[in-house]
Amino acid sequence: MTGAKRKKKNVLWSKMHTPHWEDFKQWCRKRLPILEWAPHYNLKENLLPDTVSGIMLAVQQVTQGLAFAILSSVHPVFGLYGSLFPAIIYAMFGMGHHVATGTFALTSLISANAVERLVPLSVQNLTTQSNTSVLGLSDFEMQRIGVAAAVSFLGGVIQVAMFVLQLGSATFLLTEPVISAMTTGAATHVVTSQVKYLLGMKIPYISGPLTFFYIYAYVFENIKSVRLEALLLSLLSITVLVLVKELNEQFKRKIKVVLPVDLVLIIASSFACYCTSMEKTYGLEVVGHIPKGIPPPRAPPMHVLSAVITEAFGVALVGYVASLALAQGSAKKFKYSVDDNQELLAHGLSNVIPSFFFCIPSAAAMGRTAVLYSTRAKTQCVLASIIVVGLKGMLIQFRDLKKYWNVDKIDWGIWVSTYVFTICFAANVGLLFGVVCTIAIMIARFPRAKTLSIKNIKEMEFKVKTEVDGCEQNTLLSPLSNGNCSEEASQPCQNEKCSLILDCSGLTFFDYSGVSMLVEVYMDCKNQSVDVSLAHCTASLIKAMKYHGNLDSEKPIFFESVSAAISNIHSNKNLSKLSDHSEV
User: Fold this and answer.
1) Looking at residue 393, what DSSP letter applies?
2) Which listed residue, of 42, 352, 527, 548, carries a Cα 20 to 30 Å from 577's Cα?
3) Nearest Cα to Cα of residue 347 among 372, 379, 325, 376
4) What is the pTM of this model?
């Protein structure tokens, strides 16, 4: 009797705990995506191409890690650490298959504000020049990386808190014009911060509102102090970088190995610097020696957290927005999904954990991977040129203004105003302004929305029966109300020609994102051999869609009514064999 009771108790215990264990395993797989893809990794097919890609991207990251560390106002070696540890963390927690995280220009610039404010260059003259036990670096350098690591730590904590609060679902407010304008404005700030290296000028650190204008005013006032040698070397470096990168892009299908022009340029300039003693002969600033090794972990200085709250929020918001846009873009291109909240966790931990290893704030960027590298001397104007050319993709987003103007004038206004606020203040201020504008416009447009009843619309449902295979398809088409499309369709039979009609009479307004979605639906259906027709479209919507997407010019897709669209389907050559039992 006792044994039976014990057996029964064990069975109950097993039933009670097995579901919980399964839930725990499912939670782990959800929060650690590496547990999903790693067991299914195909070594035979993927190891060799992944290794080649990793080597090429590592070479690129060496130069950008050094450059972005200088941009963050810390010793260049910390940029190499910032390329290694965040990439490892994101590989475990991130969902972007084609996204690697590491040093990033925008977050580096934001953290530089805190570094220059709390540990200015004037402190270097007041402190003793004794070296610390960490890599033989001076106390001044360690104080600076301490501030940058504190920004990274607090910024990551903010991102993890946003994950806990499930704020990733609020990313719908981050429209494409807002992100484009913010990143373009931030890239402009980054280029401006490198002017002193490009021109070889001594420019005092300037911060606060309207910094952009103050810096260029100082440059024009002291234009005679420009060093011709630095200017020529910068122009030569930028020209070489742009030309070689364009050639790599043009012939990327023919050549499997991309020329690492960044590294080649660094080596060439280092050799020239060594042979000609540019630092002494021409007065050009050089980076100097890069120490080897990885220091033991150390907690960021917690006493400065209260002083870097503003920069931490900037790193958390700007870094996440730029990273999410990259992750969503790659997911859309390669047909997989990305969880917005999971990306918050991944990037939050990629900032928190590496901050204990003297890392500057990080974010995702295409073509980044992690490696440490040790070299001797490199001129800073060459590193500045690498930063400027690396931001080319963000700077050419000025071309987006034309498409926003042709699709939606309001989106054009949001882009311009967000960019202006970013230039005049900071990236996080511009981002906040863009989001506020988006919310205000949504509220203003809401009263214009209308709800349509399909109770008395007989043409909304039709049934087509083909003679070829006797399959039936029933489709319920309802108007697009308040920007949403509601369709219910039975699964079409194989080899059946399908058609989809969207009633746009409920679209009282649209923006660039809405037009993009309509064009995306059209292209996806077209790729699946589904004919799409749009009824009751306004002239402005037709113009916007034709400008935005490469629509089929051979077949008419815009119709005055649903009846006209159905009639076109009947008269279409591909559906000429409709039976007499077809019903509308």
Assistant:
1) H
2) 527
3) 325
4) 0.75
Please state whether beta strands 530-535 and 558-559 pair in parallel, antiparallel, or not at all (unpaired): parallel
What pLDDT was estimated at residue 542? 83
The DSSP code sequence of 11-48 is HHHHHHHHHHHHHHHHHHHHH-THHHHGGG--HHHHHH
263 vs 12: CA distance, rounded Å: 64
Listed in sequence order, the residues at least 6 apart from 154 whose beta carbon sits closer than 8 Å to its beta carbon are: 305, 308, 309, 312
- Who wins on pLDDT, 193 or 335? 193
**The predicted structure's pLDDT at residue 485:** 39
CA 72 to each of CA 6, 60, 318, 368: distance values in angstroms, whole numbers, following the listed order: 65, 18, 15, 18
Give the Å distances, CA to CA, from 26 to 32, 35, 329, 332.
10, 10, 27, 25
User: Do 102 and 65 form a contact (C-beta atoms < 8 A)?
Assistant: yes
Structure confidence at residue 304 (pLDDT):
94
H or E stretch at 264 = helix 261-276
Nearest residue to 567 via CA among 486, 428, 464? 464
DSSP 458: G
Q: Which amino acid is at 346?
A: A
Look-up: residue for tokens 């960044």?
Answer: 262
Q: Write down the pLDDT at residue 486.
A: 40
The number of C-alpha atoms within 13 Å of 22 and in the hemisphere containing its C-beta is: 6
Closest CA to 99 of 91, 108, 109: 91
**Do residues 244 and 259 lie in contact, with contact meaning Cβ atoms separated by under 8 Å?**
yes
3-state secondary structure of 472: strand
pLDDT at site 380:
53
- The position carrying tokens 């949504």 is 442
Eight-class DSSP state of 551: -
Report the relative pairing of strands 461-465 and 362-365 from DSSP bridges.
unpaired
Q: Which two tokens stand for residue 162?
A: 């946003």
Determine if residue 374 is left, alpha or beta; phi over 0 gives left, psi from -120 to 50 gives alpha, anything else beta.
beta
Structure tokens given for 443: 């509220």
- Write the pLDDT tens digit of every residue in 20-66: 777 777 777 788 888 887 888 787 777 776 776 677 777 777 778 88
**Contact residues for 59 (Cβ-Cβ < 8 A; gap 6+):** 260, 262, 263
Which amino acid, one-letter code, is at 544?
A
Q: What is the Cα–Cα distance from 36 to 342, expressed in whole angstroms?
A: 14
CA 342 from centroid of its chain's CA atoms: 15
Rounded CA-CA distance 187/427 in Å is 9
- The answer for residues whose C-beta is within 8 angstroms of residue 457's C-beta and 6 or more apart is none
Q: What is the pLDDT of residue 161?
A: 94
Residue by residue, DSSP assigns 281-305 as HT---B------S-PPP----GGGG
Q: Tell me the backbone φ, ψ of residue 487, rounded to 5 degrees.
A: -135, 145
